[in-house]
Input
Amino acid sequence: MEKVVIVGTGCAGLTAALYTARANLSPLVLTGILPGGLLTTTSIVENYPGFPEGIDGYALMDRMQKQAERFGARVKFATVEGVDLSGRPLKLTADGEVIETQTLIIASGASHRHLGLESESLLEKKGVTYCATCDGALPVFRNQPLVVVGGGDSACEEATYLTRFASVVYLIHRRDRLRASKIMAERTLSNAKIKPVWDTVVTEILDAKLDKVTSVRLRNLKSNAESVLDCAGVFVAIGHVPNTQIYKGFLDMDENGYLTPKRGMETNVPGVFVAGDCADHIYRQAVTAAGTGCAAAIDAERYLARLNQ
Ligand code: NAP
Output
């Protein structure tokens, strides 16, 4: 039986791995489908302390994993399909294998929110994408008009990044003010290649019949006027949804699916702890995720010490 299983290898999971490994608990760390978490899909991270010039998101996560492994964390590429947290030991099924553990730290993060349009799912990976760093340099997007949807830091970051490749980037936002932090908003709005389109939503992505993106149908929320804007790609950056579906029925969560810890980082099930974006809809920063990963690890370590007294 495992002492500690950690689900997720973003900042929260790998920090929890580092702390529990240094406490000689030899944690088993399951990566999920995106090893390194969402930060691996970003370009330069400028607000993680200790890197005055910034650091590439992938490089940061690679370093965190190596640091945890140095102290005995075992990182395994596997996705958790189901859990049984109703008794002891706690049980997880990952890639068909049942894993038993005394404690569980859930750091499963959050995934990109979708617009919810039928045309969006039909054209996903055919011009509709959720990651500029991953897909922005594709030949199909070069020197073409591109659309970014959203008004937060992610949308600003995506739009700014895409100006390297696009002829113009249209930033479609449903309000007339960006939600993004001041520095990101100013940087975005002063970029001559970025054209904001305010008070507007995408109602359809065209053209599913041609199996590629040719334009978007837009509606202005103030005037109700409809229009069509030519573009070769749509980058959706409208926030995230927590990856917590498999814990429904076992763990307390809010109406949006964010896990709600009870004591420190411990959930309503003793021995089950949470860290990072799957339990945080307010701060959602790399450094706060790392902080809660540390807290969850300390809580798990103390729980095990009490159990084995
Ligand atoms: P966010 O801050 O929640 O912003 C989501 C944006 O999408 C909002 O502008 C929202 O509009 C819009 N939106 C939501 N649902 C929509 C829908 N169905 N249709 C159209 N628009 C929709 O998400 P985020 O930008 O991903 O940022 C998440 C967190 O990560 C934030 O705390 C952010 O600071 C952080 N982050 C930081 C950095 C950085 O510091 N470098 C980079 C990326 C993210 P409204 O404004 O009208 O609600």
